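Risk register update: the risk of archive-format incompatibility is retired. Evidence:
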Amino acid sequence: MRHNPLAFLMLLALASPLGAQVPHDSTRDLRTIQADLERVTADLAAVKGQLAQVLRLLSQRAAQGGVAPSGPVRTSVADAPSLGRADAPVTLVEFSDFQCPFCGRFFATTLAALKKDYIDTGKLRYVFRDFPLDQLHPNARKAAEAAHCAGEQGKYWEMHDVLFQNQRALAPSQLAEYARTVGVSGAAFEQCVASGRYAPQIERGVTDGAAAGVQGTPGFVIGRTTAADTVEGTPIRGAQPVETFRRIIEEWLAQQTPTANHGPRR
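Archived output:
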């Protein structure tokens, strides 16, 4: 049997501390090794967090497909917060998640442009439906409840904006702080959130969105405004460029006329 001299010498080197005097600086060496291991562990944790974020983004990539290939879809807008005139000729319904980065992008860019050109001019009604992705965004559902609780004091949209501006800091303990920022009474707000009374409404948003073909966030339906609590129109997947929304809104405006006013919503 042939022996490997290098391997033999390595074994002797490793075994020597067991049968020889331990050097005085061995403790220091062990501490150095331990510190290195701790740094490696921290680096691995950071990489794991970054990979988790990438997986979240990739899991939502399927929703970034533009106008959905299926035909018109119908969805409810009953009891949902809205912006713009109730009798605006066209309605845009968004199914959204307060922690979703693509939803945040739509809020920060596209919605602002649509508000200026269509919502504020009376051409478009914008309706917000909750569609929290619980497995990806564990704080989104409670954030949605917090927005509705702020709405009880007339501050839904102010809370909506603050939540999107702080997407990475939506722990339940932080929601009361945001409520105070927008001028919501703390005690009433906290009692509302703790009660969970808006949980059924949020779950209806998830159910209605799924029925309308929403598979990820954000998802949209653009269609004619009616006196009923439903909208039938064109589905859109993902935070598409503002030009995509303009084109579809203009198409609906070209073929629709305003309907009777059926009252404002909060």
